[in-house]
Design a protein that fits this description.
single chain; about 350 residues; mainly beta; 14-stranded mixed β-sheet; four-stranded antiparallel β-sheet; 18 strands
Length: about 350
């Protein structure tokens, strides 16, 4: 027979009712304003077999946005933006069922999670160059309430149904406090020659977290990310490609999580008037594993771990484009894009 303490049934329904309005109009010569407002009510209905009667809170969200742009000339634009955004908890993070498949490290969801609410302020400068290059520089400030993070606690004794676990760590998600992020983002695209094109971006930001779990405590850290994409047209049919990405180690409410580096190469053969291609690709060919070192501490425990992720891959892929496909990039405000910056 099924053990009810090790059996889970989770039913969740989320209805979002929203009304919004957005208007764009000129302010003066070469100035435009875009103003919008959205009000939405999120109604959550959930059933947890492991915890009957436990509910998930519903909530209302008021989300204004404002953008003022100024065209310095036909190739340069200056833009200032303010907006608000919410990030709802994921469904699985709400489920209170205790997963004890590893009796030393159990995990459980948190039905009391509320959405993160973030206010954004950004100032950006965009320039397009006549030879095809472009440059985007954005300075930003973000203030997030009810910042949701992965959280670990230690219990000397944990009782689940008829089973007692000792010296166990419990992994869950919590709204840990307030996070402030201040930084700069730079993106550039450069056609170095008729054959070589480089595209890349750098993101550097200071993250400051004020804890509500341990009132009065705070954490500050400098974080950065960078990536580079290069393509070289060897001849009319052969393209060489490279992509590299680096994420610095980042500090959260309980400690430091590892940096991550990945890079890949590709040799692509074009044919059938460039509608078809076949490519040999490889990712992290010079290292079989990527080390992920984590240092976390909390009440009564310190956790140090090193996970080796197998990332070396080799592949062969084929692609073919049918018909005529045109892509026109939608110019959106940077603050309206759903980025997980921090």
């Amino acid at each position: 027979p099924l053990n009810p303490t090790e059996t889970d049934e989770f039913t969740n329904k989320r209805d979002v009712y929203a009304a919004n309005s957005s208007n764009t109009f000129p302010l003066a010569a070469n100035y435009m304003m875009k103003a919008g407002v959205r009000d939405e009510y999120t109604n959550n209905m959930a059933y947890f077999s492991a915890s009957p009667g436990t509910g998930v809170p519903s909530y209302n969200s008021f989300i204004p946005s404002l953008t003022i742009s100024h065209n310095l000339n036909k190739n340069q634009t200056l833009k200032i933006t303010y907006s608000r955004r919410i990030q709802r908890p994921r469904y699985n993070d709400l489920n209170p069922f205790i997963n004890a498949s590893d009796p030393s490290n159990v995990s459980a969801g948190n039905p009391g999670l509320v959405p993160e609410r973030t206010q954004y302020g950004e100032l950006s400068y965009y320039r397009f160059f006549n030879k095809g290059g472009s440059l985007l520089i954005t300075a930003f400030y973000r203030y997030t309430e009810d910042d949701e993070q992965h959280y670990i606690s230690r219990d000397s004794i944990l009782v689940v149904g008829n089973t007692t676990y000792t010296d166990v760590t419990v992994n869950t998600n919590m709204n840990v406090g307030v996070q402030q992020t201040t930084g700069i983002h730079i993106y550039g695209s450069v056609p170095v020659t008729s054959q070589l094109e480089l595209r890349g971006n750098v993101n550097v930001f200071d993250k400051y977290i004020m804890s509500k779990i341990d009132p009065g405590s705070s954490i500050s850290s400098i974080n950065y990310r960078a990536n580079l994409n290069a393509s070289y047209q060897l001849n009319k049919d052969i393209v060489l490609e490279f992509f590299g990405n680096f994420n610095s180690a980042h500090t959260e409410i309980q400690g430091t999580f590892p940096s991550f580096t990945t890079y890949s190469f590709a040799v692509r053969k074009l044919f059938w008037n460039k509608k078809g291609s076949i490519a040999f690709t490889t990712t992290n060919p010079f290292a079989e594993y990527v080390d992920q070192k984590t240092n976390i501490s909390g009440a009564g425990f310190t956790l140090q771990s090193n996970t080796q992720l197998p990332t070396r891959t080799f592949g062969l892929n084929f692609s073919y484009r049918f018909g005529k496909m045109e892509y026109k990039e939608k110019k959106e405000d940077h603050a309206e894009q759903n980025d997980e910056e921090s």
